[in-house]
From TrEMBL, chain A:
This is Transcriptional regulator, PadR family. It comes from the Bacteria. Residues 17-89 form the Transcription regulator PadR N-terminal domain. It comes from Granulicella sibirica. InterPro entries: Metal_resp_DNA-bind_regulator, Tscrpt_reg_PadR_acidobac-type, Tscrpt_reg_PadR_N, WH-like_DNA-bd_sf, WH_DNA-bd_sf.
From TrEMBL, chain B:
Residues 95-318, 572-729 form the MacB-like periplasmic core domain. GO terms for molecular function: transmembrane transporter activity. It comes from Granulicella sibirica. It is a multi-pass membrane protein. The chain crosses the membrane at residues 94-121, 351-376, 408-429, 449-470, 760-783, 820-839, 851-872. This is Permease. One of its GO terms (cellular component) is plasma membrane. It comes from the Bacteria. The keyword ATP-binding does not apply. The keyword Cell membrane applies. Belongs to the ABC-4 integral membrane protein family.
Amino acid sequence: MAEERIELPQGTLDLLILKALALESMHGWAISERLQQISREALQVQQGSLYPALHRLQRRAWIKAQWAMSENNRRAKYYALTPHGRKQLGIEINAWRKLTSAVGHVLDMA
Amino acid sequence: MLSDLLYRLRALFRGKQMDTEVDDELRYHLEREAEKYRRAGFHSNEAVRRARVALGGHEQIKQQSRDSRGTKFFEEILQDLRYAMRSFARTPGFTALIVLSLAIGIGANTAIFSVTSTLLLKPLPYPAPDRIAILWLRSPGIGIPQDWPSPGQYHDIATQNHVFQDTALAIGGNFTLTERTKAMKVDGIQAMSSLLPMLGAKPMLGRIFLPEEDQPGKPATVVLTYGFWQREFAGDPSIVGRAITLDGEPHTVVGVLSSGFRLNHEALPTISGIEKPEFFMPLDDDGKNPSNYGSENYNILARVKPGVTMQQAQSDIDVIAGRLRQEKHRDRSFTISVVPLIEQVVGNVRAAVLILFGAVALVLLIACTNVANLLLSRAAVRQREIAIRAALGAGRVRMVRQLLTESILLSLMGGVAGLAISALSIFIARKMHPGNIPRLEELGMDFRVLGFTLVISLLTGVLFGLVPALRASRVDLTANLKAGGKGSLSGGLSIRHDKVRGTLVIAELAISLPLLVGAGLLVRSFVRLANVPPGFNPQHVVSMNVGAYGPKFKDPITRVQFYQQLAKRVSRLPGVTATGAVSALPLTSTVGWGGMHIEGYVPPANEPELQVDQRSSTPPYFSTMQIPLIRGRMFAETDTDKMPPVAIIDQKMADRFWTHGDAIGKRIRRSEDSLWITVVGVVGVVKEYGLDTDSRMVVYYPHAQVRNGSLYVVARTTSDPGATTAAIIHLVNAIDPDVPVYDVVTMEQRVQDSMARQRFAMTMLSGFAGFAMILAVIGIYGVMSFLVTQGTGDIAIRMALGARRASILSLVFQQGMRLALAGAVVGLVGAFGLTRMMSSLLFDVTPTDPFTFLSVLSLLLVVALSACLFPAGRAMRIDPMVALRAE
């Protein structure tokens, strides 16, 4: 796998997971696949980062987890956004937009 | 955040389940990943391999997930606890030893803390207790620091002060209750109606006194305490409105106080020594008479206005006292002191309690030191285990934490056992009622005490655990793994190689020395005190108060006849060799004194009116008590009211006014306008107030001439005093069932009781000191044993090179004694500083008594020497060949 990888800034993974879960509840593998697809393979989420992040988000009660049958009829753990998490997603997206536009401005100026 | 905490808790207690879930989840992930590769055309095995590579280490991910649950810290503690429990289970004896010494240390501290907390910290059970004060008179001419005021002084204070919101005058008294068939002596308080509201007393039934009820001419009323109502009237709810007979007069019960109300002798020290009043009644006419300056038998309680300090109250009262000195008193030096009630109650035990508290704290410190030493020895044994853990990557912080967890767990176990010990000792203390310690019935375990125990347990855990933990965790990996865990044998036989342990032993000795010196000083005081001659012979003397007062004895002649008849019949009892009676017996709380004028003696203008103790006695009283006659004659049966009045004085008075034995025939009188009384005899000085207190001058009158209504009957017996006591009580009941008998105690017991407080302090401190010494000895023994074990190789080499056994022996002793001497020197310095605080507890011994210091020092050195004995013996018996081969 030779494609270029992007180092995710601190906390960005949490935002991406929340965003991914905003559409529908998903299990861990699906989240990593989804992020990979949507980012056009630029973001490859390691399990080593994904699962700790999922636990962290559960601890903050932004997502909740539940075992359910997967599309291939196997037991898998599904994660879903909580109302609290949905609100948080809004806040984080706003913050991200502000940050990127601010950083963008600075870069354009220079 | 609540959800955060809940999540962490769930993660903590269901960690296993969560781990399994993570496993399942990762496995699922792996499968899907492998599936993806398979679909891309890889072989099954290759697909799985690729998936694994893509995913990274399974265990590592699990660990990271676990970390992100936020329970790592707690999990490690649980792990440490489990590990600690396992290691305790491996060494149960060692663990028990540590827990036991900590339990004793913590238990003793908890017990003494609960005493301290109850006595000194807990507020008195009255509303705003820090604003209540008791007022005392003080005249330097009269030998007691707290003299009871009179109603006249009360009225002056009550009307002239600007600082008190409320004042109350009260007096205690013994009354005869006639209920059913038997007469019973009961203690009561006569008080102004302001007293009970001031103390926050609430009625449970009926009411307390109305303000006008202490005015003259009101019907006789009484308010009962809860306990009295329960005991004597079986909690009869219809008691209110009923009349009970007190001193032959009907008194209407208007109320019963609630059960929580307490008023003890400590808070209201009445002159008649009422331990605990059974009822309250309005003050009689004497107490209401503002011109009554004669009977100084009353207590004044006062509540200062809000915002007024006790100092301000004192200065206001000083002004009033100044005025009284000018206008009404001969005594120009008299003062009135405002004593906060809490000071009155605990003032004279505060020093003892604080010293005991200090002492137990020192004992705990020694216990900690010892446990630290034990842990160090264990750490030496465990070095290999620790080295292995270090080699496996445990960091130093992690290991210190593990060791600290162990020590705190030990101290908490010690704390729990200590709580049991202190609960037990409090139970015993309450049963024994050791000495006249105030507020003892309030003693118990409360949250303050439990909190204290928890805090000192944690503190001790850290205190004794830190040094061993820091030291044990600093491991030299290679040396320890190579030496096979026994520690290095080439350490050499010198304390220099073990500074920490040596310092701990020195500290133990240094701490136990002041304790031993303090205990020694108290023992010496007690021995001195016990050897003070009381001025009478207490052996085989029974004594009891027999009260011939009340309406039947209105005519004083009948009292004289009653006691004469009783004496006649008591003297015929088998085993009774002598019997007599006196109005105030030595070493009881009964007192009696008054003014005295001496013919031809005019007191200097600035000197107070002469006050002396005054007693009336029957003629055989002196011979029964074996109070020696020094000059003149004893009273005779012929000294009746038909004859000229006579008196016997004690040696103290004779020495003051008439030296050279010329007191006989001199005349005295009780006031300016009373009859002259001729002195006919001089008797020995009797310790009236306590063996440690100098008596005042005493004058005795024949009972036939000064007919008190309440006398202590004493009888000297040859046989069992119990049987004689019962027989005398039986006689009194046979002569007159309305005469109460109380305060039945042998004279020997009275002497013992008078030393109760000193005995209590001595016993406690000696116990602590003994415990401290035992711990210190274990400490020296432990270190010396350890040194010998460590130095086996060294000793063996010396022996192999021809060292004689005697020199090995002296080597060990030298090491031990060096520690002992260093500890003794430090301890002596501490003792000199600390024992100074004890002077109020000592009797006839200086705080730096050289005899005590030298005895304690030699005791400690001898004990230290013997603690070296076993290790030295073991060192001597070392077989060089065996030891060196083992190396």
